[in-house]
Amino acid sequence: MKTTIYQAEDLLKPNTIKHLKEVIQTGGLVVFPTETVYGIGANAYNPDAAHKIYQVKGRPQDNPLIVHIDHLHQLNELAQAISQDAHRLIQAFWPGPLTLIFDKTDKVPDTITSHLNTVAVRMPSNPLAQMFIHATETPICAPSANISGKPSSTLFEHVKMDLYNKVDIIIDGGKSTIGLESTVLDMTTPTPTILRPGSITKAMIENILQKPIDDLSEMIHESPKSPGMKYTHYKPQGDIILIDGAIENVIKYLNKQLKKNNNDDIAVICAHEVSEQIHAKQVFDLGALNDTETIASNLFIALRAMDDMNIKTIYIHTFSKDHLGSAIMNRLLKAAGYRILSV
Ligand code: TXA
Ligand code: MG
User: What is the predicted pLDDT for the residue at 220?
Assistant: First the structure.
């Protein structure tokens, strides 16, 4: 298969719009940028097209897909029993990085929900994502545009590396602004429940609903509510050592380790304040400690860079759970296999 690449300005051309619609309506795959990460999209009402996504990504069949919409009228075709709470959250956060889980309608094929009776829906705010969905005239089911197990793609170059000539079209939207996947919130439980933390935080949701909500994302379940919870994610080829402690202790520990061994295949991914104090050959500076937005937007780029540089040992430190910190720590813990070294 030969992939067509479109730039942002191409989406203003009628021929591009026609091509996007044709590809999606005939069961093809399109990679598109969103404000969180890139998605690999198909017609949500075409089970064969959705099946292709699983094949291309190497994704386990029991991990359901999020349906992306560009207009609220599409929500009623997909979901039922939409509560007052859900309407409040939609009002506050859509379009944006919040995925809501609802009871599904019969119109939603089992292939995309992995035979669950619920469906995940979100309305992205990225203008290119909106133009793409609008052009196709159908809801789009899409997981993150990466080979399963790798960090989600937040750069066009990542998408190209994983999916070039495996999909019909890639839309180049540059670097993803947020860089971490959407918050996933289950609205089918008596109390709304976070299944995956993202940039719409628990506090922001509770502030709109004026009541406490639940967060299941920190538990590793025997039978996870969100199938995606049980799979290895974000794991580079090298070993990740996740260090927890006061910043001075982290710096001291790193310099001690680096003194023993400072080979080319050892790297440190850290906040700016740490990067200035350590003597490693390979350092990836994520941004200032209190700037969680910048850290979030660079995290997957850093993890992917490790494989490009053939790094065998990767030191990273923990971050405070303020603001985006909870989502950052969720991804780091998964990448590190939930192992933490206290110093
Ligand atoms: O930001 C995002 O959400 C990106 C962009 C492309 O929109 N998408 C994304 O999709 O991260 P994916 O497939 O990588 O992650 C979707 C997560 C998975 O953990 C999956 O298990 C969960 O959402 N999910 C989907 N449908 C669900 C359902 N019906 N019930 C519970 N969890 C569900
Ligand atoms: Mg994913």
Answer: 60
Select 239-342's CATH number: 3.90.180.10, 3.40.50.1220, 3.40.50.11030, 3.40.50.800: 3.40.50.11030
Residues 153, 15 contacting (CB under 8 angstroms): no
Share of the chain above pLDDT 90, in %: 91
Residues written for the chain: 343
Q: Two tokens at 76? A: 């009623």
pLDDT single digits (tens) 80-125 = 999 999 999 999 999 999 999 999 999 999 999 999 999 999 999 9
Q: For position 323, what pLDDT does the model report?
A: 87
Number of other residues whose CB lies within 10 A of the CB of residue 83: 13
Atom of ligand 1 nearest to the CA of 116: 29
Whole-prediction pTM? 0.96
Of 99, 110, 115, 194, the one to substitute when testing ligand 1's pocket (max ligand atoms within 8 A of C-beta) is: 99
